Each structure stands twice: as structure tokens, then as C-alpha cells.
Amino acid sequence: MTSANQPEVLIVGAGLAGLAAAVALSKQGTRIALLERKPYVGGRAYSYAHPALEEVIDSQHVLLGCCTNLIDLCQLSGADKHIRWYDHYNFLEPGTAGGPARRSVIGPSGLPSPGHSSLSFLRASMLSLADKSRIALGLLEFMRGYPATDDESFAAWLKRTKQTQNAILHFWEPIIVGALNDTFDRCSTRYAGQVFYESFLKSAQGGRLGIPAQPLSEFYAAVADLAEQQGTEMHLRTSVDRIERLSNGLWQTTASDGTRMQAPKLLLALPFEQVQRLLVTLDESSPQRERTLPLMQHFIHAPITTLHLWFDREVTELEHAALLETRIQWVFNKTLIRRFEPAPADSLPGQYLELCISASFAELHDTREQLLASSLEELARFFPAVKQATLLKSGILKEARATFSVVPGLDRYRPAQDVAGDGLYLAGDWTQTGWPSTMEGAVRSGRLAAEKISGRSFVTADLPGSGLMRLL
Ligand SMILES: Cc1cc2nc3c(=O)[nH]c(=O)nc-3n(C[C@H](O)[C@H](O)[C@H](O)COP(=O)(O)OP(=O)(O)OC[C@H]3O[C@@H](n4cnc5c(N)ncnc54)[C@H](O)[C@@H]3O)c2cc1C
User: Is residue 96 part of a domain?
Assistant: First the structure.
């Protein structure tokens, strides 16, 4: 039995999974208490005021048009007004003899899907005819969808479909390492195929690139506000150290300051290693622990490193680009991306760029000086103006546990949100969502958990195929 103001569901973790579940359930009138250990929401999609830089920084997160649940959540909360959308992707090859970079632009024309990007693809100077024909043959495999099972590695797929070295370096790598954040042998073809099917073949809308223009914690504060307006009780700075099932059937959380809360249902919306940490606080013979804990050993993390550079002048007119043949995979021009947002009164003139290095295993061990020197040297090969510009300030964010890797064979260990049973639920990008480690995966997991808890449906449908893809 629950008292009138006792929460019906305790949610631990106010990342996107926890927020999505809280919004879905509180909209139906379910009493929710959301417990978050940090002073802000958004989880890994966070920003913070860097004291030495005196700037609010984040690791740029991007979404795609096919992220239907994330977009829906942003629309419900009004955060969508701060997403900048782009139809075209820039791929830059390093300039030769100090000259500017060579640009290939991939994006839709008026042709029906799956051929909507084919004209720009045919024009792309970064690929030879031989590269293009191998890529086209490879993409044919994903025309009707992507594999249902995840046993094959993408490394094996590239070999099996005889992709050329240049096609790998200039096409598959920037897209797949950027999207799945690990090396080809630690990504399954199922998820690589999903990226191409959903964003490159199915419709032009699915491939649109969305970039939040606000710092991420500000961006997702709108979602937390919506949950609170609907009645969710928000408890920030509350780190849950222990969970237990009481003899009366209620679930109890104990926070690091000793505060206890109880509810009939408990949702752990946490990364897998945090779930593991809480599960071991349950009785050793507890069936919920037995059903869930063994799954965790199959998950591994992959890192992302971002560099934040403030130059005294403009070094590029582009808003974003993939940089080929470098460790820096993507550059985001934060000055331009944020130009419609209110700027801080003391913001510097010049240009703020963010460089993003996915699967940055090697860079985790580099010193700040090493990283900065190699990145500036690489950046100047694309934007020669970097050589004349003065770097006013710089910062580096290393996220060692940025994402989980969709290693081949992992799907059989990704738990359904109700696997634990008896009122204990799981959410988080790593649970069974059909998506890799992404914001969309996290929102789906929260909504799936809310479905299991309430018996109602919350997951937004995928985008339909357009053009000829409707027939396939
Ligand atoms: C640098 C970086 C770049 C990324 N880029 C992209 C991108 O471009 N596009 C994309 O889609 N995804 C990207 N991701 C991945 C994306 O951020 C995650 O997939 C998503 O945010 C995961 O959400 P979640 O709710 O599952 O988990 P989390 O965001 O990890 O949320 C879990 C929450 O639980 C809280 N918590 C943990 N333990 C406790 C405890 N004991 N008690 C209370 N609270 C606790 C944490 O503080 C956190 O707020 C990126 C991630 C990183 C780190």
C-alpha cells in the first residue's frame, strides 16, 4: 500500500533515459520522484561552467532526423527551438602545399529515396570511381534494411564487400566511427547498417543533422521543467548508494546522506556500471540480482575527447565538417552554431571551434600539450588561417566512459527494461532498444521502461521510408 503523497515510481538518474520515463509517466498522473546525483540534469549530455576558461562548455552532441523519440521529447518540452538543422554534410580532405582543404558536400537533391543523395555522392571528389562503385554495392545490402542479428563485425563486412582503402578512410570511417564510437572490429554490422539505412537510404529527412545550439544542460533543462510541471519531484544532488526490497514489497533507495525513499516500483535509469554497483547492494540470493548482474560483464566503454579552441579571428566559414585522414574526426564551429542564441556579455571576438575525437583510446593517455599541439597542426592542414591566428584559450574534455560499444554479439545480453522483475526496472542507452549508444537510444529506453511500468504505449514510430523506399 502507498500513502497519498508517496511516489509510485522512484527513478534513479536524470539523464535522458530517466527524464524520458519521468515525462511519460508523470503526464499520465503517476507520482514520480527523480533522484539525480549531480546538480544538473542531462547525464552524459551535459554542459558546465569551466572555472578556468570562464566559459560554459560541453561535448557537442548531434542528432539525426531519424531520432524520432528524442525529437518528440524536445518538441514536447520546447527544446526543439534550439536545434539547428542541416541537410548537407561537409567532408574535407587536407590541403596540399599549404593550400586550402578540398571539400565534398553530401546531401539530398530532388531525387527520390534511396537515391536522394546520389548526385552529391557521384560528384564527391574525396572518392574515386572505384571507391564509389564499391560503396554503392555495399549500400545495396542495406537497401531492404539491416541485419536482424549482430554477429558479424563491421570489419568483417568491409572485407567481405571488398571495400577499397580510400572508401574506408573517406566514407565508412568518418561516419561509422563518428556514429558508433569504436573501431570496426568492435562494431557490429547490424548497427553500422542501421546508421546507413535510417540516415542515408530511407529518406532525406532521416539523414538531417541536428545540432543543439544551447549548452546541453540548458538545452535539457526544458525537459526537466516539463517533468516538474507535470508533477515529478526532482531531487538533485542525491546519490543513491543502496537499494533494497523491503518485506512489505516496497523498493527502498538509500542516498549517500542517509535519506531513504520508498515506492512500489523502482527504475534504475543509469549506465550499466552504475546499475552493477547498486545491484550488488541487494541480497546475494535476490532473484532480481541473479537475473540481471551476469549480463553486465559483456559491456565495454569507449571514450570521446573534445578540444575547445578560441581563436582571435575567423579560421573557417563552415559550421561543421568531417576532417579526413586525421585523428580529429569532426569540427564544430560553435560561434556560428550558437549565433542565434543570446551570447554572454563578455564573449570574445573571433571564433570558438570544438574538435571531436571519437574512440579516443590513444588520446586518453596524451598530455594536454601533446593533444593541443597535434590537433592545431592537423587543423592548419584544413584551415591555413589557423597558422596566422592566435589561440586565446583552450580546454580539453576527456570522457573515458562516453558510450558503450555495440560489439558483435552484444544484443543477446542487452536486457529488456523489465528483466529484473518484481517492480524493479532498468533504462539507459545500453538496455534493449535496438539502437546504439545514443540520446535516441536513451530516450527510447526510458519510454520502453515507462511502457512496462504502466502498460501504456509511449514510443514514437520510426520515420516511414520515402520515394522508392516506401515500396521496399
Ligand atoms: C562526449 C560524448 C559525446 C556524445 N555524443 C553523442 C552524440 O553526438 N549523439 C548522441 O546521440 N549521443 C552521444 N553521446 C551519447 C549520449 O550522451 C548517451 O547515449 C546518453 O546521454 C545516455 O543517456 P542515459 O540516460 O542512458 O545515461 P546517462 O546520461 O549516463 O544518465 C545517467 C544519470 O544517472 C546519474 N547517476 C549515476 N549514478 C547515480 C546514482 N548512484 N544516484 C543518482 N544518480 C546517478 C548520472 O549522474 C546521470 O545523470 C555522447 C556521449 C558523450 C559522453
Answer: no
